[in-house]
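Box S2. Input/output pair 1.
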Amino acid sequence: MGPTDQVLPVSAVVSFLREYVEASELLSDLWITGEVSNYSQSQLGHRYFTLRDAKAAIRCVMFRDRMPRGFQLQDGDRIIAHGRITVYIQRGELQFDCDFARPEGVGALAAKLEELRLRLEAEGLFDPARKRPLPRFPMRIGLVTSPGGAALHDVQFVLRKRWPLATLVFAPAMVQGELAPGQVVAALRRLAAEPDLDVILVVRGGGASEDLHAFNDERVARAIYASPYPVVTGVGHETDVTIADLVADVRAATPSAAAERATPDIVAVRRNLEVLDRAMASAVRQTAAGLAADVEAAAGRLRRSAPRVAELQAAVQALARDMEGCIERQLQRERARFETMAARLAALDPMATLRRGFAIVQREGGRQPVVSSVRGVRAGDRLRVAVSDGAFWTEVR
C-alpha cells in the first residue's frame, strides 16, 4: 500500500490541518472585518460569534481574558478584529481566535494601533514603575532624528543656550516612510553601544498623524524599552501621543521641549552655585566663629582650673619645714638612745675593767680556761695573764 493509499484516523488529519494552518505566518497575525451574528457568551465569560460578509462566514471565539475593556458585541455589529486562524479539533472546523476587536468605523490603522497599545501595556512596557529618572547634569547626550530636519537644529539651539557643557552624540535616521522604523531602531542600538551616555533624545518635528507612523511601530517601542540609557521623546505636536512616547522614560511635547526636559539651564545652575557659594561662605564663617568661641570658653575653663603655683609652692615649703623639724627631732631621739646604749655597752666592756688595774687569768688548756679562784690552780700550772695593754705568761709555784 503506497502513501496515497494510507488510511488515517480523522483526528490525525484534523491535527495535521491545525498544525499546517497555525504554522502560517499570514494566518497567525490576521486582521479581518465583517458583521457579527450568532453571538453568545458562556458562563465562564468566553464570547462565541460568527463573522460574515456577503460571500462567506467564519466561526470566532474571544476568550474572557482577551476582551477589551468597555467594548461590547451584539448581533449586527460590523467590526474589525485581530487574531489567528486555528482549527477546532473536536468539530474539524476553521476558527478565528480573536484577541482584539473594535467597531469597523474606527478604521483599520486606528484599530491596529489600539491593539498594539493594549498588548504592550499588558506586557508592562508603559509601567511608570520601570521609568528611569533623568540625570541632573548630563554630559553626553544621544540624539536620534533626521539629519536634514528642523528637529536637529531645534535641539542643537536649545543645548547651546541651556547646557553647552554637554557633548551631542548624533545617530541619524529617517523619521518618516517605510524605512524609518528600521533606521530608528538601528540608531537606538548604535547609541546603546556608546560608552557613558547619560540620556537619549528621540525626536521629530510635527506633521500629519500618518507621518508619525514610525513612532507607532512595535520595533521602535521595543528598542526604546531595551535602551540601557533613559530615553526622552519629542515627536510631533503637543497633542500627538505615540506608542514611543508611552514607552519612553519621559515624554515631551516637541523636540525643543525634549531638549529642555533633558538638560538643566546653565544660567539657573550658575545662579544656584552663587547662592550656594555665599551660603557656604556664611556657614564657614559662622562655624569658625562658633569654634573660636568654644576655644575661648575652653581656655577660660583651663585658666580657672589651672593650679595656683605660688600657693602650692608655699604649701610645699611649709611641708618641707615640717618634715625637717620632724626629722631633726627624730634624730635627736635616736642620738639620745644611741648614747644611752653606748654608755651601757661601755660599762660592760672588759677592757675598761682591765684599764682600772684588773687582769684576766687563763689556764693553759683545760675545760675552764678562766681562773676565777685560787682553788682553780695548782703548782706547776702555766697561766696567761691579760692586762690592759697586753698579756704575759706565768707559772704557779
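Box S3. Input/output pair 2.
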Amino acid sequence: MIAARAGISTRTFFNYFPSKEDAALGLQPLHVPDHAAAAFREGDGDLFERAVRLTMEVIRTAVPDDGLGERRSELIRTLPELRGRLKHFSTTAGELIEPVLIEELTRRTLIDEDVHAQDIHDAATALRMVAGTVVRFAFVKNPSAWSGTTTESLTSATALFREVIQNPS
C-alpha cells in the first residue's frame, strides 16, 4: 500500500527501506560513528557505561536530525509493533560495536597472559548484550530517548541495571 500510494514499485520501495516500519519512522542504516568510537576508547568512565553510551550512539545514527523526533516517539507509543524494530536496531548496534569492545578488552588484557581470545570474545558478547538490554529498557521507559539530546533515561536505566546486578536483594 505504501509503495502504491507513493507511485513506485514494491521493489523500488525496498531498495530504500528494509521494512515498512523503517519507512514509517524514517530510519537510516546503522553505523558506528568515528567520534563515538573515539569517545569510547578515550572515555574515563567504566566499561559498562561506555558500552551503553556507544550502543545508544550507534542506534541514533538510524534517526535523522530532521525535527521529527516527537512524531517518531508518538508513533512508537501508539503502535507497539514498532518496538520490535527498536529491539532489532539494538541487537544490530550491539553486533556493530562488538569489534570495538573486543579491541578494548584485548588492550586491557595484554599484560595478562592467562586470558584467552575466547574469553575476550565472550566478555565482549556479554557486554554488548547487556548494553543493548539497558538501551531497550530506556526506550521502553521513555520512547523519546531516540532524541540525541535526551540522556536522562539512559543514565537512569544504566544506574538501575548496575544497582540490580550489584545488589539483587
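Caption for Box S3: The two ends are 51 Å apart (CA to CA). The chain has a mean pLDDT of 85.
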